[in-house]
Sequence to fold (76 residues):
Amino acid sequence: MVKKNKKYDFEYLVGKHKNFIVDELNVITNYYLCDIWTHDLEIGRFGREMMLYLFFEDDVVVKVHIKRLQKNHLST
Fold:
């Protein structure tokens, strides 16, 4: 069973337009015309990074995914 973290509950973004996302999350680093946007949520202990992925169809969010990434400690 996957434990849901209410701190990172972004399901309310499904069905929202790109303009709403820009205003809500202050996302300005993504190329507006792309169908997949990313947004950094936090960098936790041990360099673990939380990343929010937003998937769009016709400029409307159809899927939200949060992924935990391990930062590469070998890069400069």
In short: The chain has a mean pLDDT of 80. Strands lie at 36-43, 48-57, 60-70.
